[in-house]
Amino acid sequence: MLSLAGSLREAGYVPCIIDGALRPDYLKLIEREIADAVCFGVSLLTGPMIGTAIEASLLVRKLSPGTPIVFGGWHPSLLSGQTLREDFVDIVVRHQGEQTLVEILNRLQTGMPLDLVQGCWFKRGDVIQQNPDRPAVPLASLPRPAFDLIDFDAYEAAAGRRKLPYATSTGCPYACNYCTDMVFYNRRFNAYDVDRVVSELTGLVARHRLDEIALVDSNFLVDVHRAVAIAEGIVDSGVKFAWSFQASTDLLCRMSDEEVELLGRSGVCHIGFGTESASPEVLTLMNKRHQQIEDIGEAARKCLRAGIRVTLNLIFGYPGEEERHRRETLHVMAGIATRYENVSFSPNMFTPYPGIPIWPELRAKGLDEPASLAEWAGIDLGITNLPWLRGSDLQSLRRGIGYFLLDAKVNKARRKSRSPVWRWVLAQTQKPLRWRLRNSRFGLPFELGLSKAPARLVVRRSLLTGQPLSHELSRSA
Protein backbone atom coordinates (compact mmCIF):
# COMPACT_ATOMS: atom_id res chain seq x y z
CA MET A 1 0.00 0.00 0.00
CA LEU A 2 2.85 2.40 0.80
CA SER A 3 4.50 1.66 -2.52
CA LEU A 4 1.24 2.33 -4.37
CA ALA A 5 0.85 5.56 -2.39
CA GLY A 6 4.33 6.69 -3.44
CA SER A 7 3.48 6.23 -7.11
CA LEU A 8 0.09 7.93 -6.77
CA ARG A 9 1.59 10.92 -5.02
CA GLU A 10 4.27 11.36 -7.67
CA ALA A 11 1.47 11.40 -10.26
CA GLY A 12 -0.31 14.23 -8.42
CA TYR A 13 -2.93 12.26 -6.49
CA VAL A 14 -3.55 12.39 -2.74
CA PRO A 15 -3.62 8.83 -1.34
CA CYS A 16 -5.52 8.05 1.83
CA ILE A 17 -4.60 4.75 3.50
CA ILE A 18 -6.96 3.31 6.11
CA ASP A 19 -5.72 0.34 8.12
CA GLY A 20 -8.68 -1.49 9.62
CA ALA A 21 -6.38 -3.41 11.96
CA LEU A 22 -5.32 -0.14 13.55
CA ARG A 23 -8.58 1.80 13.36
CA PRO A 24 -11.71 0.06 14.67
CA ASP A 25 -13.72 2.94 13.21
CA TYR A 26 -12.45 2.25 9.68
CA LEU A 27 -15.96 2.21 8.21
CA LYS A 28 -16.60 5.72 9.47
CA LEU A 29 -13.27 6.85 8.05
CA ILE A 30 -14.17 5.35 4.67
CA GLU A 31 -17.53 7.12 4.79
CA ARG A 32 -15.78 10.42 5.42
CA GLU A 33 -13.10 10.04 2.74
CA ILE A 34 -15.11 8.48 -0.09
CA ALA A 35 -17.15 11.60 -0.89
CA ASP A 36 -14.55 13.16 -3.21
CA ALA A 37 -12.43 10.09 -4.03
CA VAL A 38 -11.50 9.16 -7.58
CA CYS A 39 -11.80 5.49 -6.62
CA PHE A 40 -11.85 3.12 -3.66
CA GLY A 41 -9.02 0.56 -3.65
CA VAL A 42 -8.62 -2.67 -1.70
CA SER A 43 -5.46 -4.77 -1.50
CA LEU A 44 -5.86 -8.22 -0.04
CA LEU A 45 -4.51 -11.70 0.51
CA THR A 46 -6.55 -14.89 0.55
CA GLY A 47 -8.22 -15.56 3.88
CA PRO A 48 -10.25 -13.84 6.59
CA MET A 49 -9.35 -10.29 5.51
CA ILE A 50 -11.59 -10.82 2.48
CA GLY A 51 -14.61 -10.59 4.76
CA THR A 52 -13.65 -7.08 5.82
CA ALA A 53 -12.96 -6.12 2.21
CA ILE A 54 -16.46 -7.20 1.23
CA GLU A 55 -18.00 -5.24 4.09
CA ALA A 56 -16.11 -2.06 3.20
CA SER A 57 -16.83 -2.38 -0.53
CA LEU A 58 -20.56 -2.85 0.03
CA LEU A 59 -20.54 0.30 2.16
CA VAL A 60 -18.82 2.28 -0.59
CA ARG A 61 -21.24 0.96 -3.19
CA LYS A 62 -24.15 2.07 -1.01
CA LEU A 63 -22.76 5.52 -0.12
CA SER A 64 -21.27 6.38 -3.51
CA PRO A 65 -22.63 4.11 -6.26
CA GLY A 66 -20.67 5.87 -8.98
CA THR A 67 -17.25 5.53 -7.35
CA PRO A 68 -15.20 2.79 -9.06
CA ILE A 69 -14.05 0.02 -6.74
CA VAL A 70 -10.61 -1.39 -7.57
CA PHE A 71 -9.27 -4.66 -6.12
CA GLY A 72 -5.60 -5.61 -6.23
CA GLY A 73 -3.03 -7.72 -4.46
CA TRP A 74 -2.38 -11.44 -4.42
CA HIS A 75 -5.89 -12.87 -4.35
CA PRO A 76 -7.44 -10.68 -7.07
CA SER A 77 -4.37 -11.19 -9.26
CA LEU A 78 -4.62 -14.96 -9.00
CA LEU A 79 -8.41 -15.10 -9.44
CA SER A 80 -9.18 -11.98 -11.45
CA GLY A 81 -12.26 -13.30 -13.26
CA GLN A 82 -13.89 -14.71 -10.15
CA THR A 83 -13.19 -11.48 -8.25
CA LEU A 84 -14.77 -9.37 -11.00
CA ARG A 85 -17.94 -11.45 -10.92
CA GLU A 86 -18.77 -9.77 -7.61
CA ASP A 87 -21.21 -6.87 -8.02
CA PHE A 88 -19.09 -4.62 -5.82
CA VAL A 89 -15.85 -4.96 -7.85
CA ASP A 90 -15.35 -2.89 -11.01
CA ILE A 91 -11.64 -3.21 -11.77
CA VAL A 92 -8.85 -5.65 -10.85
CA VAL A 93 -5.20 -4.63 -10.89
CA ARG A 94 -3.05 -7.68 -11.59
CA HIS A 95 0.43 -8.29 -10.14
CA GLN A 96 2.77 -5.28 -9.87
CA GLY A 97 0.32 -2.41 -9.61
CA GLU A 98 2.16 0.89 -9.19
CA GLN A 99 2.14 1.98 -12.83
CA THR A 100 -1.15 0.29 -13.63
CA LEU A 101 -3.10 2.06 -10.88
CA VAL A 102 -1.79 5.48 -11.92
CA GLU A 103 -2.83 4.86 -15.52
CA ILE A 104 -6.28 3.69 -14.38
CA LEU A 105 -6.81 6.86 -12.34
CA ASN A 106 -5.66 9.06 -15.21
CA ARG A 107 -8.26 7.41 -17.44
CA LEU A 108 -11.01 7.65 -14.82
CA GLN A 109 -10.27 11.35 -14.31
CA THR A 110 -10.52 12.12 -18.01
CA GLY A 111 -13.44 9.82 -18.76
CA MET A 112 -11.41 7.63 -21.10
CA PRO A 113 -12.11 3.87 -21.29
CA LEU A 114 -9.73 1.34 -19.72
CA ASP A 115 -9.19 -0.61 -22.92
CA LEU A 116 -5.55 -1.62 -23.44
CA VAL A 117 -4.45 -0.47 -19.98
CA GLN A 118 -1.86 -3.15 -19.32
CA GLY A 119 -2.17 -5.01 -16.05
CA CYS A 120 -5.89 -4.61 -15.41
CA TRP A 121 -9.15 -6.41 -16.05
CA PHE A 122 -12.44 -4.55 -15.82
CA LYS A 123 -16.16 -4.88 -16.43
CA ARG A 124 -18.07 -3.25 -19.24
CA GLY A 125 -21.64 -3.91 -18.29
CA ASP A 126 -21.68 -7.60 -17.34
CA VAL A 127 -18.78 -8.51 -19.64
CA ILE A 128 -15.28 -8.92 -18.22
CA GLN A 129 -12.59 -7.27 -20.34
CA GLN A 130 -9.15 -8.87 -20.08
CA ASN A 131 -6.28 -6.54 -20.90
CA PRO A 132 -2.75 -7.92 -21.41
CA ASP A 133 -0.57 -8.15 -18.32
CA ARG A 134 1.94 -5.37 -17.73
CA PRO A 135 5.59 -6.51 -17.74
CA ALA A 136 7.18 -6.10 -14.33
CA VAL A 137 9.62 -3.22 -14.00
CA PRO A 138 12.69 -3.15 -11.73
CA LEU A 139 11.75 -2.17 -8.19
CA ALA A 140 14.44 0.51 -8.23
CA SER A 141 12.60 2.32 -11.04
CA LEU A 142 9.49 2.85 -8.92
CA PRO A 143 8.97 5.86 -6.63
CA ARG A 144 9.94 5.34 -3.02
CA PRO A 145 7.17 4.02 -0.76
CA ALA A 146 5.37 6.71 1.23
CA PHE A 147 6.75 5.72 4.63
CA ASP A 148 5.83 9.15 6.01
CA LEU A 149 2.15 8.11 5.88
CA ILE A 150 2.75 5.63 8.72
CA ASP A 151 1.70 6.68 12.21
CA PHE A 152 4.48 4.83 14.02
CA ASP A 153 3.28 6.04 17.41
CA ALA A 154 -0.13 4.48 16.83
CA TYR A 155 1.37 1.16 15.77
CA GLU A 156 3.71 1.18 18.76
CA ALA A 157 0.74 1.75 21.07
CA ALA A 158 -1.07 -1.20 19.47
CA ALA A 159 1.84 -3.63 19.12
CA GLY A 160 4.19 -2.63 21.91
CA ARG A 161 7.22 -1.83 19.75
CA ARG A 162 8.33 0.25 16.80
CA LYS A 163 8.62 -2.24 14.00
CA LEU A 164 8.35 -2.02 10.20
CA PRO A 165 7.86 -4.62 7.45
CA TYR A 166 10.08 -3.87 4.46
CA ALA A 167 10.70 -5.60 1.13
CA THR A 168 14.19 -5.48 -0.39
CA SER A 169 13.10 -7.83 -3.19
CA THR A 170 10.22 -9.80 -4.65
CA GLY A 171 10.10 -13.25 -6.19
CA CYS A 172 11.75 -16.63 -5.65
CA PRO A 173 13.32 -18.84 -8.34
CA TYR A 174 11.96 -22.08 -6.91
CA ALA A 175 8.72 -23.72 -8.07
CA CYS A 176 7.20 -25.34 -4.98
CA ASN A 177 3.81 -26.82 -5.87
CA TYR A 178 2.02 -25.37 -2.81
CA CYS A 179 3.25 -21.80 -3.21
CA THR A 180 1.47 -18.87 -4.86
CA ASP A 181 4.69 -16.86 -5.07
CA MET A 182 5.85 -18.72 -8.18
CA VAL A 183 2.56 -17.83 -9.91
CA PHE A 184 2.39 -14.22 -8.76
CA TYR A 185 6.01 -13.31 -9.56
CA ASN A 186 6.65 -15.93 -12.28
CA ARG A 187 9.80 -17.10 -10.44
CA ARG A 188 11.61 -13.82 -11.19
CA PHE A 189 13.82 -12.22 -8.56
CA ASN A 190 13.44 -8.43 -8.55
CA ALA A 191 15.59 -6.58 -6.03
CA TYR A 192 16.81 -3.20 -4.83
CA ASP A 193 20.57 -2.72 -5.02
CA VAL A 194 22.69 -2.95 -1.89
CA ASP A 195 23.25 0.80 -1.41
CA ARG A 196 19.51 1.52 -1.68
CA VAL A 197 18.67 -1.12 0.94
CA VAL A 198 21.34 -0.05 3.43
CA SER A 199 20.62 3.67 3.16
CA GLU A 200 16.86 3.23 3.35
CA LEU A 201 16.90 0.77 6.27
CA THR A 202 19.33 2.79 8.36
CA GLY A 203 17.56 6.02 7.47
CA LEU A 204 14.15 4.66 8.47
CA VAL A 205 15.53 3.35 11.77
CA ALA A 206 17.13 6.68 12.64
CA ARG A 207 14.22 8.83 11.42
CA HIS A 208 11.42 6.86 13.06
CA ARG A 209 13.26 5.36 16.05
CA LEU A 210 12.55 1.79 14.93
CA ASP A 211 13.48 -1.20 17.07
CA GLU A 212 13.17 -3.85 14.38
CA ILE A 213 12.62 -4.30 10.66
CA ALA A 214 11.04 -7.52 9.37
CA LEU A 215 12.00 -8.14 5.76
CA VAL A 216 9.05 -9.56 3.84
CA ASP A 217 11.11 -10.80 0.90
CA SER A 218 9.96 -14.13 -0.50
CA ASN A 219 13.48 -15.56 -0.18
CA PHE A 220 16.03 -12.98 0.96
CA LEU A 221 19.09 -15.14 0.30
CA VAL A 222 18.46 -15.78 -3.41
CA ASP A 223 21.53 -13.60 -4.06
CA VAL A 224 23.87 -14.58 -1.23
CA HIS A 225 26.57 -12.04 -2.18
CA ARG A 226 23.97 -9.26 -2.10
CA ALA A 227 22.76 -10.37 1.34
CA VAL A 228 26.30 -10.38 2.71
CA ALA A 229 26.95 -6.92 1.26
CA ILE A 230 23.77 -5.58 2.88
CA ALA A 231 24.89 -6.95 6.26
CA GLU A 232 28.34 -5.39 5.79
CA GLY A 233 26.76 -2.06 4.92
CA ILE A 234 24.58 -2.10 8.04
CA VAL A 235 27.58 -2.93 10.25
CA ASP A 236 29.64 -0.15 8.65
CA SER A 237 26.81 2.35 9.15
CA GLY A 238 26.97 1.99 12.92
CA VAL A 239 23.16 2.05 13.12
CA LYS A 240 21.93 -0.60 15.55
CA PHE A 241 18.63 -2.38 15.02
CA ALA A 242 17.23 -5.91 14.92
CA TRP A 243 16.09 -7.38 11.62
CA SER A 244 14.71 -10.66 10.39
CA PHE A 245 13.96 -12.42 7.12
CA GLN A 246 12.85 -15.71 5.60
CA ALA A 247 14.88 -17.93 3.29
CA SER A 248 15.50 -21.51 2.26
CA THR A 249 18.08 -23.60 4.12
CA ASP A 250 20.04 -24.54 0.99
CA LEU A 251 20.90 -20.91 0.38
CA LEU A 252 22.03 -20.26 3.94
CA CYS A 253 24.17 -23.41 3.80
CA ARG A 254 26.06 -21.89 0.87
CA MET A 255 27.28 -19.24 3.29
CA SER A 256 30.36 -19.73 5.45
CA ASP A 257 30.10 -19.68 9.23
CA GLU A 258 31.81 -16.29 9.16
CA GLU A 259 29.25 -14.86 6.74
CA VAL A 260 26.36 -16.06 8.90
CA GLU A 261 28.07 -14.55 11.92
CA LEU A 262 28.23 -11.29 9.98
CA LEU A 263 24.44 -11.46 9.63
CA GLY A 264 24.21 -11.80 13.40
CA ARG A 265 26.54 -8.86 14.01
CA SER A 266 24.50 -6.70 11.66
CA GLY A 267 21.41 -7.27 13.81
CA VAL A 268 19.71 -10.35 12.31
CA CYS A 269 17.81 -11.82 15.25
CA HIS A 270 15.55 -14.34 13.54
CA ILE A 271 15.37 -16.32 10.30
CA GLY A 272 12.34 -18.31 9.18
CA PHE A 273 13.02 -21.33 6.99
CA GLY A 274 10.39 -22.96 4.81
CA THR A 275 11.54 -26.52 5.50
CA GLU A 276 7.97 -27.93 5.24
CA SER A 277 8.87 -31.63 5.65
CA ALA A 278 11.73 -33.94 6.56
CA SER A 279 10.48 -36.70 4.28
CA PRO A 280 12.33 -36.83 0.93
CA GLU A 281 9.25 -38.40 -0.66
CA VAL A 282 6.99 -35.56 0.44
CA LEU A 283 9.55 -32.96 -0.61
CA THR A 284 9.55 -34.54 -4.07
CA LEU A 285 5.75 -34.32 -4.17
CA MET A 286 6.09 -30.65 -3.26
CA ASN A 287 8.64 -30.11 -6.06
CA LYS A 288 11.02 -28.96 -3.35
CA ARG A 289 14.09 -30.94 -4.35
CA HIS A 290 16.39 -28.09 -3.34
CA GLN A 291 15.52 -28.82 0.32
CA GLN A 292 18.06 -31.35 1.61
CA ILE A 293 17.39 -32.93 4.99
CA GLU A 294 20.96 -32.45 6.18
CA ASP A 295 20.73 -28.73 5.37
CA ILE A 296 18.06 -28.23 8.03
CA GLY A 297 20.35 -29.13 10.92
CA GLU A 298 23.30 -27.38 9.31
CA ALA A 299 21.34 -24.14 8.95
CA ALA A 300 20.31 -24.38 12.61
CA ARG A 301 23.94 -24.96 13.62
CA LYS A 302 25.23 -21.98 11.66
CA CYS A 303 22.54 -19.73 13.11
CA LEU A 304 23.15 -20.92 16.68
CA ARG A 305 26.83 -20.08 16.29
CA ALA A 306 25.79 -16.60 15.12
CA GLY A 307 23.22 -16.06 17.89
CA ILE A 308 20.25 -16.09 15.51
CA ARG A 309 16.88 -17.63 16.40
CA VAL A 310 15.38 -20.00 13.85
CA THR A 311 11.82 -21.01 13.05
CA LEU A 312 11.30 -24.12 10.91
CA ASN A 313 8.01 -24.08 9.06
CA LEU A 314 6.27 -27.44 8.60
CA ILE A 315 3.36 -28.39 6.36
CA PHE A 316 1.25 -31.42 7.30
CA GLY A 317 -1.58 -32.96 5.34
CA TYR A 318 -0.02 -32.42 1.93
CA PRO A 319 -1.72 -34.62 -0.70
CA GLY A 320 0.16 -37.91 -0.92
CA GLU A 321 1.61 -37.62 2.59
CA GLU A 322 1.21 -40.77 4.69
CA GLU A 323 1.52 -41.51 8.40
CA ARG A 324 5.07 -42.82 7.93
CA HIS A 325 6.06 -39.51 6.33
CA ARG A 326 4.67 -37.53 9.25
CA ARG A 327 6.45 -39.81 11.69
CA GLU A 328 9.71 -39.27 9.80
CA THR A 329 9.30 -35.49 9.89
CA LEU A 330 8.52 -35.38 13.61
CA HIS A 331 11.45 -37.69 14.37
CA VAL A 332 13.97 -35.61 12.42
CA MET A 333 12.68 -32.30 13.76
CA ALA A 334 12.67 -33.56 17.35
CA GLY A 335 16.33 -34.47 16.92
CA ILE A 336 17.14 -31.00 15.61
CA ALA A 337 15.29 -29.43 18.56
CA THR A 338 17.38 -31.55 20.92
CA ARG A 339 20.67 -30.49 19.37
CA TYR A 340 19.99 -26.80 18.76
CA GLU A 341 18.42 -24.59 21.41
CA ASN A 342 17.76 -21.71 19.00
CA VAL A 343 15.13 -23.66 17.03
CA SER A 344 11.34 -23.25 17.19
CA PHE A 345 8.69 -24.72 14.94
CA SER A 346 5.68 -23.54 12.98
CA PRO A 347 3.53 -26.56 12.08
CA ASN A 348 0.64 -25.80 9.76
CA MET A 349 -1.97 -27.71 7.86
CA PHE A 350 -1.66 -27.71 4.08
CA THR A 351 -3.68 -24.77 2.79
CA PRO A 352 -4.93 -24.85 -0.84
CA TYR A 353 -4.37 -21.27 -1.92
CA PRO A 354 -5.64 -20.05 -5.31
CA GLY A 355 -3.50 -20.52 -8.38
CA ILE A 356 -1.12 -23.14 -7.01
CA PRO A 357 -0.02 -25.72 -9.62
CA ILE A 358 -1.56 -28.78 -7.96
CA TRP A 359 -5.21 -27.70 -8.08
CA PRO A 360 -6.08 -30.37 -10.70
CA GLU A 361 -4.83 -33.03 -8.28
CA LEU A 362 -6.72 -31.45 -5.39
CA ARG A 363 -9.97 -31.48 -7.35
CA ALA A 364 -9.39 -35.12 -8.27
CA LYS A 365 -9.03 -35.89 -4.56
CA GLY A 366 -12.44 -34.37 -3.84
CA LEU A 367 -11.50 -30.87 -2.69
CA ASP A 368 -14.03 -28.26 -3.80
CA GLU A 369 -12.48 -24.97 -4.87
CA PRO A 370 -14.21 -21.93 -3.35
CA ALA A 371 -16.45 -20.27 -5.94
CA SER A 372 -16.65 -16.72 -4.55
CA LEU A 373 -14.79 -14.16 -2.51
CA ALA A 374 -16.95 -14.95 0.51
CA GLU A 375 -16.00 -18.63 0.32
CA TRP A 376 -12.29 -17.83 0.03
CA ALA A 377 -12.59 -15.78 3.21
CA GLY A 378 -12.92 -19.09 5.06
CA ILE A 379 -9.49 -20.30 3.93
CA ASP A 380 -7.03 -20.06 6.80
CA LEU A 381 -3.97 -21.90 8.01
CA GLY A 382 -4.89 -25.00 9.98
CA ILE A 383 -8.65 -25.02 9.54
CA THR A 384 -8.95 -26.34 6.00
CA ASN A 385 -11.23 -29.34 5.59
CA LEU A 386 -9.10 -31.77 3.56
CA PRO A 387 -11.03 -34.77 2.18
CA TRP A 388 -7.98 -37.04 2.51
CA LEU A 389 -7.32 -36.12 6.16
CA ARG A 390 -10.33 -36.59 8.41
CA GLY A 391 -11.57 -38.48 11.43
CA SER A 392 -9.05 -40.57 13.36
CA ASP A 393 -6.18 -39.68 10.99
CA LEU A 394 -6.69 -35.96 11.60
CA GLN A 395 -7.06 -36.50 15.34
CA SER A 396 -3.84 -38.53 15.41
CA LEU A 397 -2.00 -35.81 13.50
CA ARG A 398 -3.20 -33.10 15.87
CA ARG A 399 -2.18 -35.12 18.89
CA GLY A 400 1.18 -35.91 17.34
CA ILE A 401 1.87 -32.24 16.74
CA GLY A 402 0.73 -31.48 20.28
CA TYR A 403 3.21 -33.99 21.70
CA PHE A 404 5.94 -32.75 19.39
CA LEU A 405 5.50 -29.15 20.54
CA LEU A 406 5.21 -30.20 24.19
CA ASP A 407 8.44 -32.17 23.90
CA ALA A 408 10.19 -29.15 22.36
CA LYS A 409 8.87 -26.96 25.17
CA VAL A 410 10.06 -29.34 27.89
CA ASN A 411 13.42 -29.63 26.14
CA LYS A 412 13.89 -25.84 26.19
CA ALA A 413 12.87 -25.64 29.84
CA ARG A 414 15.40 -28.36 30.70
CA ARG A 415 18.18 -26.44 28.93
CA LYS A 416 17.36 -23.19 30.72
CA SER A 417 17.06 -24.67 34.20
CA ARG A 418 20.00 -24.25 36.58
CA SER A 419 18.69 -26.88 38.99
CA PRO A 420 20.13 -30.40 38.43
CA VAL A 421 17.10 -31.88 40.17
CA TRP A 422 14.62 -30.03 37.96
CA ARG A 423 16.59 -30.93 34.85
CA TRP A 424 16.38 -34.60 35.89
CA VAL A 425 12.62 -34.32 36.45
CA LEU A 426 12.15 -32.75 33.04
CA ALA A 427 14.32 -35.43 31.42
CA GLN A 428 12.10 -38.13 32.93
CA THR A 429 9.05 -36.23 31.70
CA GLN A 430 10.42 -36.33 28.16
CA LYS A 431 10.79 -40.12 28.07
CA PRO A 432 7.10 -40.98 27.57
CA LEU A 433 6.75 -38.08 25.12
CA ARG A 434 9.64 -39.42 23.04
CA TRP A 435 8.19 -42.95 23.18
CA ARG A 436 4.87 -41.68 21.88
CA LEU A 437 6.56 -39.77 19.05
CA ARG A 438 8.78 -42.72 18.05
CA ASN A 439 5.87 -45.12 17.92
CA SER A 440 3.04 -42.76 16.89
CA ARG A 441 1.03 -43.77 19.95
CA PHE A 442 -1.22 -40.84 20.77
CA GLY A 443 -4.20 -42.49 22.44
CA LEU A 444 -5.29 -41.41 25.94
CA PRO A 445 -3.33 -38.16 25.76
CA PHE A 446 -3.27 -37.51 29.50
CA GLU A 447 0.02 -35.59 29.31
CA LEU A 448 -1.58 -33.02 27.05
CA GLY A 449 -4.54 -32.77 29.37
CA LEU A 450 -2.43 -32.45 32.49
CA SER A 451 -0.31 -29.73 30.96
CA LYS A 452 -3.36 -28.02 29.46
CA ALA A 453 -1.34 -28.09 26.26
CA PRO A 454 -4.31 -27.72 23.90
CA ALA A 455 -4.96 -24.29 25.39
CA ARG A 456 -1.32 -23.24 25.59
CA LEU A 457 0.47 -24.82 22.69
CA VAL A 458 1.27 -22.34 20.00
CA VAL A 459 2.82 -22.31 16.59
CA ARG A 460 4.08 -19.47 14.49
CA ARG A 461 2.19 -18.49 11.40
CA SER A 462 4.74 -15.86 10.50
CA LEU A 463 8.23 -16.93 9.56
CA LEU A 464 9.16 -13.27 9.65
CA THR A 465 8.77 -12.64 13.36
CA GLY A 466 8.63 -15.95 15.19
CA GLN A 467 5.93 -14.50 17.40
CA PRO A 468 3.47 -17.11 18.73
CA LEU A 469 -0.14 -17.19 17.62
CA SER A 470 -2.90 -19.59 18.66
CA HIS A 471 -3.57 -22.21 16.04
CA GLU A 472 -6.19 -24.77 15.14
CA LEU A 473 -3.66 -27.60 15.19
CA SER A 474 -3.35 -27.40 18.95
CA ARG A 475 -6.97 -26.64 19.82
CA SER A 476 -8.12 -30.18 20.19
CA ALA A 477 -6.11 -33.21 21.27
Structure commentary:
This protein is 45% helix and 13% strand. It has 21 helices and 13 strands. Helix 10 links the parallel strand 9 and strand 10 (242-247). The protein is globular and about 75 Å long. 37% of the residues are buried. The model is unreliable at 453-477 (pLDDT under 50).
Structural class: alpha/beta
Second rung of CATH, namely the architecture of the largest domain: Alpha-Beta Horseshoe
User: What does the largest sheet look like?
Assistant: 6 strands, parallel
CATH names the topology of the largest domain as pyruvate-formate lyase- activating enzyme
- CATH superfamily grouping of the largest domain: tm_1862 like domain
Write down the domain tally. 2
CATH class of the largest domain: Alpha Beta
**What does the radius of gyration come to?**
24 Å
Task: Write a concise synopsis of the structure shown.
The protein has 477 residues and is an alpha/beta fold.
